[in-house]
Specification:
There is one protein chain. The protein is α+β, with helices and mostly antiparallel strands. It has two domains: 96 residues; 86 residues, Aminopeptidase (3-Layer(aba) Sandwich), CATH 3.40.630. It contains eight helices and eleven strands. The strands form two sheets. A seven-stranded mixed β-sheet has the order 1-2-3-4-11-5-10, sandwiched between helices. The chain has a four-stranded antiparallel β-sheet with strand order 6-7-8-9, covered by helices on one side.
């Protein structure tokens, strides 16, 4: 089903999230001319569909207790997801992906990037509020969060979300406007490229600082929007 999924997912930027999931072997529930539906191990579902009728048929493949949150790539699917899962929390995003060669790092000697350990979990959770402390701990425990250090002090952090997108980028107030966000973005992008992955993320509509930074680094930005949908304390997997 991977080949059928990739045939439909013909926009490498807008569908970078689903392309990454399909190629790394996540559960493809549907793939063909009607669209693609993927569910990750943590219960995140992503859907791209040809039309509203196709979206409705694909959603029928998922039981409500099998989907913790949903990413829809077409606006007409939002109401369908609300009806089936009761998700009333929406976060509209644009897609971003880096499709080039490894990025040159600045060569700064005042900063170093290190994997974060659980001793930093409380500090990260206190400064990043899109996901709860338990989620932060799982990402640190998985070895998928990194910090930028100056004189052994943490200045900011970044990580990979469970579904494979970059995110959680945060620089502490006193260290902002010193190029640390750019330093972290370049470092993680190159780590992903070294793994054979496409660096990608979702930028919340209106986050002009994040969009500007990524354009500066050479990321491609979608003109279309997608929507993260959830309820309870499950937020968007980005920013």
């Amino acid at each position: 089903m991977i080949a059928q999924a990739l045939d439909f997912l013909d926009d490498k930027v807008f569908y970078a999230d689903m392309i990454g999931l399909a190629t790394r072997g996540e559960s493809i529930l549907a793939a063909g001319p009607e669209g693609v539906l993927i569910r990750t191990q943590d219960g995140t579902c992503m859907m791209a569909s040809a039309d509203e009728a196709s979206a409705r048929r694909m959603l029928d493949l998922i039981e409500p207790d099998q989907c913790g949150c949903m990413v829809v790539h077409e606006d007409y699917a939002i109401g369908l997801v609300e009806e089936r899962f009761g998700f009333d929390r929406h976060t509209r995003c644009i897609a971003s992906a880096y499709l080039g060669a490894p990025l040159p790092q600045s060569g700064r000697t005042d900063l170093s990037v290190r994997p974060l350990t659980l001793e930093w979990a409380d500090i990260v959770a206190a400064n990043y509020h899109m996901d709860g402390p338990a989620y932060i701990r799982t990402r640190i425990d998985a070895g998928e969060m990194w910090g930028a250090f100056h004189d052994n002090g943490l200045t900011g952090f970044i990580g990979l979300h469970e579904e494979g997108s970059m995110g959680m980028l945060t620089v502490f107030d006193r260290y902002r406007r010193h190029g640390i966000a750019e330093y972290l973005m370049i470092d993680l992008s190159n780590r992903m490229i070294a793994r054979g992955l496409t660096p990608h993320d979702h930028i919340i509509v209106g986050n002009l600082a994040s969009e500007s930074l990524q354009r500066k680094l050479g990321f491609s930005i979608s003109t279309r929007t997608l929507t993260w949908m959830s309820c309870g304390d499950r937020g968007p997997i980005e920013e």
